[in-house]
Amino acid sequence: MIDTIIETIAQKGKVAVMLSGGLDSAVLAKLAHEALGEKALAITIESPIVAFNEIEDAMKIAREIGVAHEIIPMNELDDREFATNQPNRCYICRKLRNRVAREVAAEFAIETLADGINYDDLKDYRPGKKAADEDNIWHPFVEHKLSKKAVRQLARELKLTVFDKHSEACLCSRIAYGINMNQDLLERIEKAETFLKTICEGPLRVRCLPYDLAMIDAADQEGAMRAKSKIVSALREFGFAFVCLDLEGFVSGKLNRIIT
Question: Which of 161, 194, 218, 244 has the most CB atoms around it within 10 Å of its CB?
Fold first, then answer.
């Protein structure tokens, strides 16, 4: 499969990969570099809606691969429609990011802009993919019908250090639709998750619900319960009025249930 995808990428001549710092885009950036060498480019957008550790991971991945890497600052919160946090939030965000990434790719005379969306992503509510399709963003893993599990296996075969990294998403995905987004709220969520990762193992999210309620969505519920007093104290200090633990445990994309 690796040789097949490399051959497909090589046929593009030049490719720019939107490198988020996650597993999928890391694998795609590696494959693009294997296929095209100096004709491959990784583009990372540095933004307050993305946890800083994800930007750091993107930089580490690019260095590990050896691919040329451009980091572009932007602030989606400046777009008023985006900041109101309606169900089309991801569509608006992706349109903004696509435009910036396309401009950078054009500076390097690159026509093909690709992302790491995998075949499993099609099962969830993905308005960002609609925006990407409208903007002619290429999805190699969708084209080859590669699931998340398959992409992770590719990461192992390619010996990428992020092969076991948990899925992440932008900080906005933690905020229930309809709650206005601002930098202070995003920073509180990032601080809360950074703190919780020192206590709980495995994937987790701090979901922001109405009335300033922080709902902890963690795979390691036992770890969260053992440290509940410490967690409540810390999250109250970060500015949340109420703190609760979701008994269902970690499920990616959970807040989409509100609209689907």
Answer: 218
